[in-house]
Automatic annotation (TrEMBL):
Protein's recorded name: SulP family inorganic anion transporter
Source domain of life: Bacteria
Organism, as annotated: Terrabacter carboxydivorans
STAS domain ranges (all copies): 398-486
Residues making up the signal peptide according to the UniProt record: none
Amino acid sequence: MRAALRSPKRLRIEVLGGLVVALALIPEAISFSIIAGVDPRVGLFASFTMAVTIAVVGGRPAMISAATGAVALVIAPVVREHGIDYLVATVILAGVIQVLLGLLGVARLMRFVPRSVMVGFVNALAILIFLAQLPHLIGVPWVVYPLVAVGIAVMVLLPRLTTAVPAPLVAIVVLTAFTVIAAVAVPTVGDEGRLPDSLPGLFFPHVPLTLETLGIIGPFALAMALVGLMESLMTATLVDDVTDTHSSKTREAWGQGVANIVTGCFGGMGGCAMIGQTMINVKASGARTRISTFLAGTFLLVLVVGLGDVVAVIPMAALVAVMVMVSVGTMDWHSIRPATLRRMPRSETFVMVVTVAVVVATHNLAIGVIVGVLVAMVLFARRVAHFTRVVDVAHPDESTRVYAVEGELFFASSNDLVTQFDYVGDPEHVVIDLSRSHVWDASSVATLDAVTQKYAARGKTVTITGLNDASQERHDRLAGHLTGAH
């Protein structure tokens, strides 16, 4: 960040990136406030406090956090049934939970998200961003459509001439100037909701500190914490990939919690990372530091409080054009090319499609990712289970037969192991060689016990050899102790 402050070119990029994001945040925050059932000021102030706080405590530079649709959907029932005080208490408790989860290392779970789920997440995000623009394109004056087309053309063509100024900012200024000068009647930001005219103040929820209150807000706070962390960590991973840099996911996890606690203390609705606005900041504007995130929040407050009358006349067509370009830029087009689909394993493509379908159906990125991961785990376990086989390798003498087990032994693969031995036809002594295998869980040990017992029932003995150190330790500790018969 210090290097950016010493570089006029980099600082200009960060400042302009923050300004573009602030403009794009305004209608989004208002829309999410409506979804949550609160005054638009609650969402706008939440976006300000989230962005400014995460710029300081977050782990992923240039990532934008603000009020989001996913969080709005989770907390809407709290507002509807119990009011704004319980909402704020829920946001603060969710922040505390996120801090605890971050300190406990929940971010390390990101390593279990397969690439196919990540690709599905990105593609679903692109689709959701585009679908979110459709309400602004239906039932509107015909002039909206050419305005959107002009905005898209500016963002496509301007970067070929110069990158000194972010193309989205130019598109917004040009379209706003045209609609104002030509007095064109089109939907504007002001039509989305009333903008605040004062600064946010401290707000402490008036709720009884009882177990009953905890019972009301606890489930919603936990859901908000998990959804927020899921979207934030996935977004951080996406930005890491776009910028080819590494970020601290653990710091990002507890940083999101701190930001939500601060937001709750100012009466905000809470939030998490905003993927669309982050892509505007990182890809469209080229921002890379915390400066752009901090300024996005600062500009947002200045715009809605100090320049509300000016911001209110920005045509929604300009912001729709920006978000359509963000959608196009976010989509992983390579992943859906026919050549790529033919080359990819069907299971990988299936996981990606399931992730996209669930996200689009539920409009919840977190649910889609969880379902995608579960499907990927099931398919992986099914695929690996077929790799295990029992091979007859030797007959040292008439009374001995040696089997070799090849492959990984775990709950999915070990269940069929029992059926692969000739209990009746084998001689009195059987050797099972596990040097080309590994025992991963108690299910595998129980299966080996079952094999031994079946031979023992026929008066035959079994010797298990070739266990590596980890498998030997697990077998010695569990063998003979997994059923009530021992």
